[in-house]
Structure prediction request, 864 residues.
Amino acid sequence: MTLLGNLALWLAFLMGLWGAVTGFAGGLQGRTDLQRSARQAVFAMFAALVVAVICLEVAIFQHDFNVAYVAGRTSRNLPTFYLWSALYSGQEGSLLFWATVLSLFATLAQVLTSARHRAYLPFVAAVTCVVAAFFISVMLFAPANPFARLPYTPVDGAGMNPQLQNPGMVFHPPMLYLGYISITIPFAFAIAALMSKKLDVDWLVAIRKWTLLSWLFLSIGLLIGMWWAYVELGWGGYWAWDPVENVALLPWLTMTAFLHSVMIQEKRGMLKKWNLALILSSWLLSIFGTFITRSGVIASVHSFTQSNVGYFFLGFLLLAVPATFVLYAKRLPLLEAESTLESMVSREASFLFNNLLFLGIAFSVLWGTMFPILSEWVKGTKVTVGPPFFNQVNIPLGLALLALTGIGPLIAWRRASIPNLRRQFAVPATSGVFVLLILLVAGMRDFGALMAIALGGFVMGTVTQEFARGTSARHRQYGEPLALAALRLVGRNRRRYGGYIVHTGMVLLFVAFAGMAFKTETQATLRPGESVTLRSPYGHVYTFTHVSVSQYDALNRRVTAALVEVSRDGKHMGRLKTEKRQHVDALGRNTFEPSTEVGIRSGLREDLYVVLGGLVNGTEQAVYRFTINPLVWWVWAGGYVLVFGGLIVLWPGGGPPAVRRTQAGYAVKLEART
Amino acid sequence: MSIDRRGFLVAVTATLGAALQDSLAGSGPAGRVADPASAGRPMTALTAADIDAGYQAIEKKLKCTCGCGLDIYTCRTTDFNCTYSPNLHRQVVALAEQGKTAQEIIDAFVAQYGQQALMAPPKRGFNLAGYFVPSLVVLVAAGFLIRALHRWTRAAAAQAAVAAPASTGSPDASPAELERLRRELERHPG
Prediction:
């Protein structure tokens, strides 16, 4: 199987090279035979990579421990669920996964792109082939070959890192990869538009679903990653500003900025240069993120082991950045705006400030991530840039962005009049102030949390007002019942109202983030029957009573489980179990250091989070950490709402594409005058 | 005192049961578990210093040297396999017991491990660039954006002034009607 896998990799590599050459040549010379060949090269590359994936999966499921990757990532007693995820749980496999998914997306772009945008496809084939060929070349030459064999065959494999044996880790990496990878398609269309000089809104229409898809995958990937960190790592939080988390956030920020600013280009023919730059930089940031993750150049708990693979990505980045920049710079004269901004107080201006903040946050995250390296270069001093730094710099920017989330939809396109502003802002501003007053009366004094929740109230006021006005307009116009009118309002204007649902999700997330300012915790050493109490931010007194410790064998681990009884204000609430797991291979040998499984009781107001630190001298006397994390449930709820809103926007249909309503404002003006 | 056969059996069973059972909830000492080795690194009972809020506040400002990227407090209460963070914690406690203040303890760590011992760089020298460059960049960019917006809106106003005489001849709608139309459109969804 490894021979076939290697052959498939080489075939895919050659197909990638061929597709790149014929795609560029066919596109530039207008030769249909070369264009057709490029398209077929994409399909062949995809087929070859699927064969390679099947070969690796077969090796994994057959426990072929002569294959280094299989021996290093799996064991005979690894549950089947995790055998699937073993495909991308290591460096080599994840590269193969990446290349395969990229070739799948490249194939879908060739097949699903409408005839109207066919002119871009040879270049799209070429760009996707270049990127895929690069990833395959890393496997073949780095070396990071997933089919590399060992000089001997171990009886059993080393097993999978216990922290990866979590459902979150089965879905987090592929979702994040799907987000990263799918950015390549909009990037390829952007390069195609630049090379073919077809820089009107057509390429934007062609990439619209792809950009949304990328954004959605990145969002889901980040959210599942947060969930995994919370339930698995045991430090009681979900975001630690780790370099790898940061670089995953960067393309999400630039893509979100693009999803806002592209509306200005579609409606007004403005910001062409800016939108192109956002798409190009999103892709470059995704490669930069891959470099940081895989090079180990910055210390991170997530990083793959330090290897020369990272430097392949650095080399690729050093070639891609100037090439992209030169092409972009050459086409700048073709990217002039079709109209100008009419007023500082307009939806367009608010979107520009929104973009400024997204890019500002992206810059500050990048700056903070790279600052340790910069400091070492400039001053020769190693420094650590941890959460205190990122919170200090990003919280004000995040709050300003939250405010703009509420302000933007209230301001009219082109120009807003004073009476219009007064009418639009009355309800949302009142709701924001009302929330702020309630919080102050309730005794909340944390400035960041106060502002986050009050601004959340303001944004919700905006969203509610938009839904209420739209629904009542339909109700008046068509005589529809209110519920039906609301449903049809969303169905007929998916982009707008789906966007508002996404904003609602963001509000929930911000409010939940604010809750962590009130986290409380304690540690205790308890014998069976002994208790410790902890007061929650809401004033409840929780009592945690250590019940017992039990030990038992599970499929691939020995479990030490500690049971804790919980009561709130003297009322029994239930039991929580927290574990130590010693993973073993099929021969019963320890494979990793013991890991900790957290006991969590999640509620709307707060989470109880119990961690078993260990046992005192091998007895039932246990060391615990007890944490009360307020509002964490709302992080996941906000995530669901955000994804739901994204799906509504992404769902096909729902009225004519925005491009057909290009410059709607002007159309209205003309109609009014004729 | 006499005891019947049933009473004797109950007493023996109870005694054996108590001996075999590791422990009883809420009573007696904690018994040994069957396989202590699989329960992680053996721990000692927490001391007052381990749960002291003052020490925790100091440790939250200092980075663990194990490479986890976490602060000492979070690492020692999260990664129970780490051998660095308990030692660093002991070092904090020892320095405090010598009568050092929180800042002196932090300074001692910086002297020993360098600036990377801190979770965030101190706000002095080149590090100021770390803190202020992002805000400065955003402010400068905002300045440029406001200037550009002014330029664009002025250009739009000039264009409108040029175009206005040409269109004055054929208005089918008065400015008031156009304003009303605009308001209606703003109210209309979609």
Summary: Chain A has a mean pLDDT of 91. Residues 387-517+635-673 of chain A form one domain. Chain A touches chain B through 93 residues (CB under 8 Å). The radius of gyration of chain A is 27 Å.
